[in-house]
């Protein structure tokens, strides 16, 4: 059975960034688990009345659980770190939490944001990219975080990437060259439904439709077992996966 760990910063990152890939893996009988570093409590609520950041965070955590279920998640872990300030969290603590998560779920493949922080360049996206990358390398080392479970070395680390920005586009950041392009046309309805479950984020629907509702989701191999071809159509191609 193919197993994947998705490491992201906010509720809705999983849907916006890679919802089609996650839904496709689940439909094929694979397993994916999600580590979400914050509750998204510094964001807006799309007109839904909230009395505090804590209330918004609770709403967004519940939305995340519903959306992840729609996409076929096995388990979701919410770390509850400060939204918008993930870079201020003790790095050793955050990396250790992700190491524990990887050792508990023992994925073949890990996916996270690229070092540029996706098209928006959000500082939480860049922070989780750095922490997830460190955890990927440390998870298999016995003497690193010895109290975080039995060592496990995932076989590949992929960064989310994306098509080059069009001239005049609002967002001009470029991602890494794609080495995997996943056809998610059959999953677009499921992906849209999952986004709709993030009710507090409906103000972003236009950007979601422009940037996320594409026929393919792109990834760049950052480390691990070499791909059998320059550009693959399956993140697990060429790997020995579990029964």
Plain-language structure description:
With 243 residues, the protein is of the alpha/beta class. The chain has a single domain, classed as 3-Layer(aba) Sandwich (Rossmann fold). Helix 1 crosses helix 5, helix 2 runs antiparallel to helix 5 and helix 3 packs across helix 4.
What's the helix and strand layout?
Elements: E1 3-8, H1 13-27, E2 31-38, H2 53-70, E3 75-81, H3 91-105, E4 109-113, H4 123-138, E5 156-161, E6 180-183, H5 188-196, H6 205-211, E7 216-224
Parallel strand pairs: 1-2, 1-4, 2-3, 4-5
Antiparallel strand pairs: 5-7, 6-7
Name some characteristics of this structure.
243 residues; 7 strands; 6 helices; alpha/beta; single chain; 7-stranded mixed β-sheet; Rossmann fold
Query: What is the highest CATH level, the class?
Result: Alpha Beta
> What share of residues are in beta strands?
15-25%
Largest β-sheet summary: 7 strands, mixed
The helix/strand series, from N terminus to C terminus, equals: EHEHEHEHEEHHE
End-to-end C-alpha gap: 5 Å
Taken together, the total number of domains comes to 1
Q: Structural class of the helix and strand makeup?
A: alpha/beta
Strand order of the largest sheet: 3-2-1-4-5-7-6
CATH third-level topology? Rossmann fold
Corresponding CATH superfamily: LmbE-like
DSSP strand tally: 7
CATH architecture classification name: 3-Layer(aba) Sandwich
How many H/I helical runs? 6
**Mean pLDDT, nearest integer?**
95
Which regions are unreliable across 5 or more consecutive residues at pLDDT < 50? none
Rg measurement, Å: 17 Å
